[in-house]
Each structure stands twice: as C-alpha cells, then as structure tokens.
Amino acid sequence: MRSPWRWLALAVVVALVAGGSLYAVRLAQERAADRSAGWLHSLDEVQGVWVSRTGFTYDGSTPWTRPVTVTVDGDELRFDVGCNRMSATVTVEDHRLRSEQGVVTTEIGCPPDVAATEAWLMALVADRAQVQLKGSTQGPMFSLDTNAGWIGFLRR
Q: How far apart are CA 121 and CA 79, in angstroms?
C-alpha cells in the first residue's frame, strides 16, 4: 500500500521541479533578449561626453584616423571629428536612432580623412543605427551599429 503513495509523491516532486525549471529558463531568456544585448530604449543612460578609438566598417576599412567625440545632450547628438560641427536631434525607436532632419553640419572644407569620417557618421544616423550600452574592459561602451559599420564610445 505504501508504494502507490511514494510513486505519487515522486511524480508530484518531478512535475514541480520540471515546471519550476521551465519557468526559470523562460524568465532568463526574456531577460537575456532584452537586457544582455544592452539595447537602449532612450538616450537617458548615455547622457554626457563619449570618445571613440574603436570601430569598423563592414567592408573591412576603417573610416577614421583620429578619435571621434559624441556628446549626448537630451535628445541631441553632437559629433566632433575636429573640423565641422555636426548635430542631430534624435529619438530611439525599437533600439534604433531616428532623426527627422538627419545630421545638421557646417560646411568647412576638411582634410579628406576627416571628411570621410564625417560622412560615415552621417550615414550611421541616416541608416537608423542600433544603439547599445554594453560593458567593456575599459568601462561602459555606448555603440552605434548599422549595415555601414560599428563604432564604440567610452565615457570621457
């Protein structure tokens, strides 16, 4: 008579453990999909000045030879490569930058390497770059990523 109760108790324990495990896995997957990638829903977490020396284009070239500075001030991004003043008023929708007017810039004649970097940055905004905040060995890294390439910024 004892045997049926033991089997029933064992079945209940196995069902509870399996159900709890499935719940924990599902919860971890939901959190990983939203947070581990560091996707940003707004620019609130990245306010301030950031400097980059890392990044690449997907064709394998590197379009800049000097640091790129981006200042995030409210909903405005200001880029400084050392020549023109560049800014864009943006929102973040579905983890991507959105700018109605694109990048506004002065039109000073710049050296070719600087002009190429400025054009590439304007393309990142126009291509609705994905925005992320991830950890790196040097601290938090704010990054912009599109089909044109990727650039990562460290807090200054």
A: 8
Positions in the chain whose pLDDT score sits under 70: 1-2, 17-37, 53, 62-65
Contact 51, 156 (CB under 8 A): yes
Q: In this structure, are residues 19 and 122 in contact, taking their beta carbons and an 8 Å threshold? A: no
Q: Report yes or no: 110 and 83 within 8 Å, Cβ to Cβ.
A: yes
* Strand ranges inside 39-83, DSSP E: 48-57, 68-73, 76-80
Three-class SS of 8-34 = HHHHHHHHHHHHHHHHHHHHHHHHHHH
pLDDT digits (tens, 9 = 90+) for 28-56: 555 444 445 689 999 999 999 999 967 77
Phi and psi angles of residue 118, each rounded to the nearest 5 degrees, phi first: -60, -45
Q: How far is CA 119 from CA 1, 62, 79, 116, 131, in A?
A: 81, 13, 11, 5, 19
Residue at token pair 């694109």: 102
Give the predicted TM-score (pTM) of the model: 0.72
